[in-house]
Amino acid sequence: MRNKIFIGILLFVLILVITTVWYFSGISVSIVSIVVPSEVGTYDSGYVAILLQNNGSKDINVSLKVKNTIEDEKGVSVQEPIIIVGASGLDALPAEVSLKPGINQINVYYGYQLPGLKKIEVEVYQKSKLADAKSVEVNVLPPQIRVELQYTNESQSGYDIYKVFGSLSNFGKGTAKGVAVNISIIDETTGKIVSSATRGEAQIRDYTFFQPMNTWRGKDGLEKQAAVAIIELSSGASSNESYVPALAVAKGKIGNRYKVVVTATWRDQVVSSEMRVPPEDEKVVMKVNPVIDYNPLEGFMSNSEGMFTVIKGSIPEVKESLNGIIVKKAAQLSTFSFNDTLNFVVFRGVFPTGGYGINIDRVEKQGNIYTVYATYRDPGKGIGVTAAFTQPVAIIPIGRLAAGDYESRLKVTKVVENADGTKIIREVIETEKELGVFNFSVKPPEKEETSTAQTQKTNFDMNGTIENITIPCPFNVQCNPQYWLDAEDGNTYHLRFSYGTRLPNGDLQICEGLPALQEPCLTRLPNFGQHIEVIGTVTYNTDICGVNGKTVPCQPIGRVMVWSWQPR
Questions:
Q1: Most buried residue, 90, 125, 235, 493, by most Cβ within 10 Å?
Q2: pTM greater than 0.85 (yes/no)
Q3: How many domains does the chain have?
Q4: What residues pair up with 39 in beta bridges, in sequence order?
Q5: CA dist., res. 94 & res. 82, Å (int)
């Protein structure tokens, strides 16, 4: 019995030895190393170098199994086909690979869409038997996205236009595909989003430090950066500008505050940047169109020093007011109405000859402080001048301003021009020296209140003869008058007119100052006297405005006047 057991054990060991010898007999290949970068980025591509050692003296055929060299967008390893770098380009890994004696290299492509630590596994088989197996780890790094915002500001008469430009940067090794960008403009007073837009499928490669979020192709065919958001702040009515191709647009009043928030999302990576508009304590170079005049006082020759001030009105009205201040010694105004169109005035003084010039270099705005930079040019040696008196002045329209207190400064660079033959040599005497400061204030608009009793008075029966009459009104203001005979007493006439001028869109443009309308309108009514009485007003809401009939941005105010009078 014991002999039988011993014989059984001996046979089992013998079979095991024979099987092991058979399995490993003929194995002449091994994996020397797997060469791959220790760190790669998402969407990077390259190849894994697999070094195989053929220990025999003859060519042998082996098969390979390579895992986790390529993954899809879900992080799942792509098993078949495995792509290798062959002599003819990219080929599928064949069933068997011929190895020459010594070291052989097989290159297999890798690529990953998700970051993380990846384990590449390689198995080599000879005669359908596993000859060797090795693995190596690769760290796939994600992109590092950043959102950057810049802005420009353009100040025009009555408008501040802020253009916000956005760009994506990637400080990481990986590439980001399918980046979604959201732009939101938020009213900081209400906290509500007033405009938003989303742009998806953006791609940003590794170590890209400036990629515009929005572009447009100009007339020259070149692609240029476009604003992602535009905010228009006006002192009155908003413009009709669409601001294409900006992605988000908001329009408000000067004094309103907004916040532009731009968020970029790639998978679980969310980054954002924000900008407040208008930025606090920003310094803005305004877009201005100065008017230069060398004889605004029309021949005035008395000695007069220079002056820096603010004057309201149109250019002709500014010259008239300047004449009153210099020639007639009228007082300078320092308090203005919300509806006034304002101008900076740089007056050099009165000179006995020509050759004294003035240029406005720029106007800067920082909060409620304005700085006017000007250059004064004086004639020097060899410069021919006219013998007439001149009064150089620069008038700089800045439009309407929001209610508040303001400070304006004048900084002057003085230059003397000398002639050397045909060549003009300019010598700088002083640079940006402050020559004037003028403080002024703007009052808020007054709200007109109309009682119910007044409104009811205008609802009387217009049962007399209603005639349209043409009455010349000041400053090209259209009165739109109608008058009729009161049927109740047969003696009193009534005049009703729209107090202002009509805009192309049908809105009424209000004229400021009742006395300005009273004389030109009412004294030209034929055969009627001057016993005039306002018997009622009606206030209505529409976008209307005006300063002496001039078209300017406005507030929602307005009225229709009804007058009555009797013949002498």
A1: 235
A2: no
A3: 4
A4: 139
A5: 9
Q: Give CA–CA dist 273/150, Å, rounded.
A: 10
Element at 137 (helix H, strand E): strand 129-141
- C-alpha angle 137/143/149, rounded to 5°? 170
- Neighbouring-strand partners of residue 31: 52
Give the residue from 496, 565, 558 showing the smallest Cα distance to 528. 565
Categorize the per-residue pLDDT at 156 as very low, low, confident or very high, splitting at 50, 70 and 90: confident
pLDDT tens readout for residues 356-407: 999 999 999 887 889 999 999 999 888 888 888 889 999 999 888 878 889 9
137 and 151 in a common domain: no
* Domain presence at residue 237: yes
Give the whole-angstrom CA distance, residue 323 versus residue 309: 13
pLDDT digits 0-9 by tens, 284-319? 788 888 999 998 888 788 888 889 999 999 999 999
Q: Is 460 helix (H, G, I), strand (E, B) or coil?
A: coil
Number of neighbouring beta carbons within 10 Å of residue 437: 11
Q: Looking at the structure, do residues 291 and 423 belong to the same domain, yes or no?
A: yes
Between CA 408 and CA 373 the distance in angstroms is 11
Q: Which amino acid is at 223?
A: E
Residue 373: both structure tokens together: 């930079």
Tokens of 420: 């050397």
CA angle, 63 then 69 then 70, to 5°: 120
Q: Are 512 and 546 in contact (CB under 8 A)?
A: yes
